[in-house]
Design a protein that fits this description.
Layout (H helix, E strand, L loop, with lengths): L18 E5 L4 H12 L3 E6 L2 H11 L3 E5 L5 H15 L4 E4 L17 H21 L6 E5 L23 H25 L5 E5 L19 H11 L3 H4 L1 H8 L8 E4 L9 E3 L9 H15 L5
Parallel strand pairs: 1-2, 1-4, 2-3, 4-5, 5-6, 6-7
Antiparallel strand pairs: 7-8
Helix pairs in contact: 3-4, 4-5, 5-9
The structure holds NADP nicotinamide-adenine-dinucleotide phosphate (NAP).
NADP nicotinamide-adenine-dinucleotide phosphate (NAP) binds next to helix 1.
Length: 303
């Protein structure tokens, strides 16, 4: 469901001189988000796990960007990343949790988490909470969590299988982690507000765009002609798909806890609009349960 708020144009001026961390900005939608921020006068930290592709991305994003290594499957690497940002810059203005995986072959991380759950959700939770101290003295700071229309398909949370301990269903865990990203966004925003913090947390989704995320889908989809056709007629190209995240970061008409999607019925393509997520995200008990599990897994909580 969409509400008729035109969220474009947003306040590009307000991006000037901001320091923005964009995870997964060596590729796809993250790369476009990073480029726009640099074009608008911000400095971007390209937070990703591949130095070579980060340096290629930097040529596209612009000089006012810098690579810092981040692997979201590795808790030590997340701590190290936060230390590095703190040492080099002190504070940041905006954290955009964008990195993600879709339908990887079944894999467990060093800490025993299934890969999709680790990157798409636990990585978002850990990085956000560890970055909060770097944002708390920055007026207008925001945490933005990328999600997806796949979250609408979740009807029920099977808590016994969130780490794929019983079965591994690639589509279901992708959708569930995208639901968790919004539940986490709302809960984090509520907890920040209760502690009188000025930091807000928002979620968004890009619609659908053929990017490297399709690497585990049938090969014909990543055929360059197919990509062009699909992104032009059915879905949208990555630069257009980056707009909801830009709006969530820079528009002053939206509030903590909001979900920025697209102004069309199916939300595959369109212009940014505030939309209503899956109703499960409004269940306080489910959000509390997710928070408790996240603390238990990571040992990290909001202080
Ligand atoms: N494209 C869509 O249609 C669509 C729709 C809804 C939501 N989304 C969401 O949008 C986000 C961006 O997707 P995209 O389409 O731009 O895909 P993409 O081009 O594949 O980009 C994903 C990014 O995440 C990074 N990443 C993966 N695992 C990581 C890890 N362990 N640590 C750090 N970074 C890691 C990737 O790094 P590498 O390059 O090293 O793999 C890449 O930079 C994802 O969260 C996705 O779920 C996309």
């Amino acid at each position: 469901m969409t509400v008729p708020i035109n969220l474009l144009p947003y306040d590009i001026e307000s991006a000037k001189n901001k320091l923005v961390v964009v995870t997964g900005s060596n590729s796809g939608i993250g790369k476009e988000i990073a480029k726009s921020f640099v074009d608008y006068g911000a400095k971007v930290i390209i937070a990703c796990r591949n130095e070579q592709s980060a340096s290629e991305a930097k040529e596209y994003i612009g000089l006012n960007s810098e690579f810092i290594y981040l692997d979201l499957t590795d808790v030590d690497a997340i701590y190290k990343f936060v230390d590095e940002v703190h040492t080099r810059y002190g504070n940041i203005d905006i954290l955009i949790n964008n990195a993600g995986v879709l339908r990887p072959p079944f894999t467990r991380t060093k800490s025993g988490l299934e890969l999709t759950f680790a990157v798409n959700y636990i990585g978002y939770y850990s990085l956000s909470l560890l970055m909060i101290p770097l944002m708390k003295n920055v007026l207008g700071s925001r945490v933005i969590n990328m999600s997806s229309i796949s979250q609408y398909s979740v009807k029920y949370i099977n808590w016994d299988n969130i780490n794929s301990d019983k079965t591994y269903n690639k589509n279901k865990i992708y959708a569930l982690t995208n639901l968790f990203r919004i539940m986490f966004t709302i809960e984090l925003n509520k907890r920040l507000s209760n502690s009188n913090s000025s930091i807000v947390s928002l979620a968004c989704h890009p619609g659908v765009s053929i990017t490297n995320i399709v690497r585990n889908l049938p090969k014909f989809i990543s055929n360059p002609i197919m990509v062009k056709l699909l992104n032009r007629f059915l879905f949208q190209p990555p630069d257009k798909a980056s707009k909801p995240a830009l709006v969530a970061s820079l528009n002053s008409n939206i509030h903590g806890g909001d979900f920025v999607g697209l102004d069309t019925r199916k939300q595959y393509k369109g212009n940014p609009a505030i939309v209503t997520p899956n109703e499960l995200v409004f269940d306080k008990e489910l959000r509390q349960k997710l928070w408790d599990i996240s603390v238990e897994i990571t040992g990290i909580d909001l202080n």
